[in-house]
Amino acid sequence: MYHIKEDKRAKASVELICGGLKRCLKEKSFESVTISDIQRISGVSRSTFYRNFDRMEDVLALMCDRVFEEAFASDYSNISEAAFRTWFRHADMIEAVVGIGRGDMLYASLRRCSEKLRPDIPALGDSALLDYLASIIASSMMGIMITWVERGKKESEEELKGVILQSFKAMKFIGLT
Fold it and tell me: Is 125 left (phi over 0), alpha (psi -120 to 50) or beta?
């Protein structure tokens, strides 16, 4: 888990750590990155790292949360537009998460962010419906990101949107629409 204090120094250290991990990921896989690598690049001590994060995966979890907070806070005409633009800007981070088999991080971040949208969603009935809708959206988005990375990130933003639209239309075939 990450636990970031609300003071300038702690926040600055966290930024250095995240920046260090981003730079490391440009040169090697997540599994190959060590805390020592991040220390060397960021200039942050090991004790400062552990004051803010329990382990390396927690840095990625924070980065996931930030990516999806950015997407959900965007002022695009719809959330899928914001999500796609944000995914493509942060493809390296998403690839790192998928590469270590931690799609659950993507899902957890998406669920946390989608909860913040609840007040903006038109009333659909009881809260159970909203819970299932949030789960379906988060699961679908996570699956799309994982598949996109596993396929080598071949599709452009527009191509990916088209494939997803076709996929939802194909759901009619199995009786889901």
Answer: left
Helix or strand (DSSP H, E) at 168: helix 157-170
Task: Note the pLDDT of residue 104.
Answer: 93
Reported as a pLDDT band with limits 50, 70 and 90, residue 148 is very high
Question: Which residues are within 8 A (CB) of 2 and not within 5 positions of it... i.e. 6 or more apart?
Answer: 14, 52, 53, 54, 58, 59, 61, 62
Q: Output the pLDDT for position 105.
A: 92
Homologous superfamily, domain 1-54: Homeodomain-like (1.10.10.60)
pLDDT range class, residue 137, cuts 50, 70, 90:
confident
Residues in the chain, how many? 177
Residue 174 pLDDT:
76
How many helices (H) and strands (E) the chain has is answered by 9, 0
Which sequence spans correspond to the domains of the chain?
1-54, 56-174
DSSP 8-state class, residue 135: H
- Quick one: pLDDT at residue 124? 61
What end-to-end distance do the CA atoms of the chain give, in Å? 39
